[in-house]
Amino acid sequence: MAKTASIPETEPKPRGRQRSHVCESSILSATMELLETKCLRDVTCDAIAQRAGVSKATLYKWWPNKNLVALDAFLSSMRRSVPTPDTGSALNDFTLELESVIRFYATPHGAMFRQFIAEGQSDPEFLALFRERFLRSRREEVRIIWERGVARGELREDIEVDLALDLIFGPMIYRHLVGHAPLDDLHAEALVAVAFRGLQKQPCPNDSVDPRKVPAELEPEKRPLAG
Questions:
Q1: Where is this region: Disordered (predicted)?
Q2: Which of 43, 58, 126, 191 fits a disulfide with 54 by CB distance 3.0 to 4.6 angstroms?
Q3: Are the C-beta atoms of 100 and 82 separated by less than 8 Å?
């Protein structure tokens, strides 16, 4: 009696229509292009769909509103421009990360960061979305650098990681928003070096950045000794 050929088992297909990567990329790119010339409140889902060559129903299938599209588009652009480094040194990794972020914020795409912050001042719901959709994701990525440094014994494990990240990236955000002082690779090195004076567990002689070499503007004020 002939054997019946066995039918290979197949994995169950996920329910619902899956997101097309090509279509998603078109929507995110279209959103960034529109935001280069218009503020967020003037960009519409109709305009995004038309520019991306998709239906508005397709857009709404994946994003409930344009603000989420904008934040996802911004985060996607930043991830392409700012890869998380892994050089074996927390000091060098944070310096490279900060340099990449500064360069990204200097581009037309990066300049949208200020627009999002401004929009959030009059729209608490959007500010909450910004924190959840963009800020939390970015902090999770750089948290990896901190955790690697702690595991290697470079960084103090008694410091709260969120506080440490604020010390490293906060001055850059302040300068970017206010524009009162320069932002470039030299100042990125200096900002990280100054922060590491309190964050580093012990000096790493192989690090390429010398914490002692910081611009005079970042040195603590020298006060005369009392007496």
A1: 1-21, 205-227
A2: 58
A3: yes
Q: CA nearest 82: which of 115, 107, 55, 56?
A: 107
Distance CA 74, CA 138 (A): 11
Q: For the chain, what is the total number of helices (H) and then of strands (E)?
A: 10, 0
Name the token pair of 87.
């050089």
Fold of 21-65: Arc Repressor Mutant, subunit A (1.10.10)
Render pLDDT for 93-106 as a digit per residue (tens, 0 to 9). 999 999 999 999 99
- Take residue 59 and report the two structure tokens written for it: 């857009």
Give residue 207's Cα distance to chain centre: 24
Q: In the chain, which residues fall in CATH 1.10.357.10?
A: 82-202
> pTM for the whole thing?
0.79
Residue 192: CB partners within 8 Å, gap ≥ 6? Answer: 91, 94, 95, 98, 168, 209
Cβ atoms 133, 71 nearer than 8 A: yes
Every domain of the chain with CATH number 1.10.10.60 lies at 21-65
Helix axes 112-122 and 66-81, enclosed angle (nearest 10): 150
Question: In terms of CATH architecture, what is 82-202?
Answer: Orthogonal Bundle (1.10)
